[in-house]
Structures are given as structure tokens and as C-alpha cells.
Design brief:
Length: 257
């Protein structure tokens, strides 16, 4: 198993859910955490927890990954020890709405495309060249079962996650002549703020998504990410699909109530 001690790990969208769980899991392994999200107050709290509980370093900054200029400036002006990112977890992402294409809100579509596809690309475009230069690095993209299946009302969100799947495969091809590795971790239902965001703050509707079954937790996904990045250098976990036991496919779940 490859040690994560003192590795610099950059997690995007670390203020909640899977990203937050990844940050804590890497900190537990002794990694140094570089975090971003839009909600700086949350990152501040998380950074305190990381430093207090795991006695490891944490640097965070506010960033909207949809803003290409801000992404470039934030990453190019990092204090020098933080520039050498060993592991990038491209996690920032969201869904908005669950409606038929002909009822869809353009603002929802743009937010998903700009965050899930373009944001991931903006971050990767700055981080990967540095990794290639150093001939060292691992990129973990957080995809989804929605990158492999399409479900009613999922249209544009599913398209963005299909794009993440294609981008991951493209990265794997483009980096094959380097020691860099690229993985995608593709979960089914994970109990985070995801559904609350999808339904624009409707707590009742969001709660219904996970009713009558045990969903995955952010920690379950974080453990999978840790697994991907701790394999020996000659082993690349290209894709990990993880579902709750009670969910067989995007639209097939067993509920007890
Ligand atoms: P959460 O809503 O709990 O977390 C999403 C994170 O993304 C937050 O930290 C949020 O931070 C950040 N984020 C969103 N938009 C931006 C932005 N423009 N710039 C920077 N950060 C942003 O949901 P999850 O933890 O579930 O989602 C994480 C990833 O997992 C997403 O890519 C999602 O598609 C994927 N996923 C989720 C599944 C689920 O069932 N929950 C299943 C499969 C995949 P902030 O708002 O502070 O900016
Ligand atoms: C999140 C899982 O099934 O709601 O990507 O699309 S799903």
C-alpha cells in the first residue's frame, strides 16, 4: 500500500458530503489537505477539525470552479509548498432539477454543465501539467451511476456525468505514457446535501430520495477514493462503481417503507 503521509491532496467541493468526507479520510492518513468550495465558513470549520484532530496541515480557499479566471489565479498563486499537488479529487458538482427536457430550466442546465464538466476541466487544466512536469500524480474524478445510465428527468445531469466518464477515459489515454494515474469513482445514492441542492432546498422531497433504504455515506465513498490512490504504482483503478446494497440500478431500489 502506498503511504499518503505528507502527500498534498487537493479536494474540490470540500464544504459538504463526499468532498468533506474525503478531506477527513486523507487527513486521517496523514496527508496535507488543500481544499476549496464556495462556502468559506464551512471550509474554515473543516480546516480547524483537520488540524485539531489529525495534526496535519490544511490550506483552503474560496473558489467557484465555474469561473475559469478565478481557478487559474487561485491555483497559480498558491503558497509554494501547496503547488506540488500529488492527488487531485475532482469532486465539486451538483444536480439541479428532475424534470423533462421540455420543462427544463436553462439556468439549471447551465449550472450543472458549468460546474460538473467545465469546472472539472478548468481545475484539471491547471493541475495536470504540473503533475506531468513532475512525472507524478493521481487524479480521481467523482462520476456517478448517472454517467452510465439515464433515468427519467435526469437528462442534463446524466449528460454531465457521462461527460465526466468520457473525460476520465480521455485523461487515461492521454497520460498513458506517464506514471500518472486517473480513476473515477462512480456512486449510486449517497446521503449528502445532493438531493437538497437538486430540489432547490425542498427538504421533504430531498428526504424522500433515501426513504426506506440505507444509502451510501460520504465516508463509504471516501474509503473507495483512498483505496484507488493507495495501490502500488503499477496498478491503476480505472473505475469503481459503488451502489447501496438496496440499489441495483439508477431506477431500481428496494425500499422497506
Ligand atoms: P453535496 O451537495 O453535499 O456537496 C457538493 C460539493 O460541491 C459542495 O462542497 C459544494 O460546495 C461543491 N460545489 C458545488 N458547486 C460548486 C462550485 N461552483 N464551485 C466550487 N464548489 C462547488 O453533494 P455530494 O457530496 O453528494 O456531491 C459531490 C459529488 O458527488 C458531485 O460531483 C456529485 O455529482 C457526485 N455524486 C453524488 C451522489 C449522491 O447521491 N450524493 C452520487 C454520485 C455522484 P459549495 O456549495 O460550498 O461551493
Ligand atoms: C447522483 C446519483 O442516481 O441521483 O449522481 O444520479 S443519481
Amino acid at each position: 500500500m502506498t503511504s499518503l503521509k505528507d502527500k498534498i491532496v487537493f479536494v474540490t467541493g470540500a464544504s459538504s458530503g463526499i468532498g468533506q468526507a474525503c478531506a477527513l479520510a486523507f487527513a486521517r492518513e496523514g496527508a496535507k489537505l488543500l481544499l476549496c468550495a464556495r462556502r468559506k465558513d464551512r471550509l474554515n470549520k473543516l480546516a480547524d477539525e483537520i488540524r485539531d484532530t489529525y495534526r496535519t496541515e490544511c490550506h483552503f480557499f474560496q473558489l467557484d470552479v465555474r469561473n475559469q479566471k478565478d481557478v487559474e489565479t487561485a491555483l497559480n498563486t498558491l503558497p509554494s509548498p501547496w503547488k506540488d499537488i500529488d492527488i487531485l479529487v475532482n469532486n465539486a458538482g451538483l444536480s439541479r432539477g428532475l424534470t423533462k427536457v421540455h420543462d427544463g430550466l436553462l439556468t439549471d442546465w447551465e449550472e450543472m454543465i458549468d460546474t460538473n464538466i467545465k469546472g472539472l476541466l478548468y481545475i484539471s487544466r491547471v493541475v495536470i501539467p504540473e503533475m506531468v512536469e513532475r512525472q507524478s500524480g493521481h487524479i480521481v474524478n467523482i462520476g456517478s451511476i448517472a454517467g452510465h445510465e439515464v433515468y427519467p428527468g435526469g437528462n442534463v445531469y446524466c449528460a454531465t456525468k457521462h461527460a465526466v466518464d468520457a473525460i476520465t477515459k480521455g485523461m487515461q489515454i492521454d497520460l498513458v505514457d506517464t506514471p500518472l494515474r486517473v480513476s473515477t469513482v462512480d456512486p449510486g445514492m449517497v446521503d449528502t446535501e445532493f438531493s437538497l441542492v437538486r430540489f432547490h432546498g425542498d427538504t421533504e422531497r430531498a428526504g424522500g430520495v433515501y426513504k426506506g433504504l440505507t444509502p451510501l455515506s460520504g465516508d463509504d465513498i471516501a474509503e473507495a477514493v483512498i483505496f484507488c490512490v493507495t495501490r502500488p504504482p503499477h496498478v491503476s483503478i480505472n473505475q469503481l462503481r459503488i451502489m447501496p446494497t438496496a440499489q441495483a440500478a439508477a431506477t431500481v431500489a428496494h425500499r422497506t417503507e
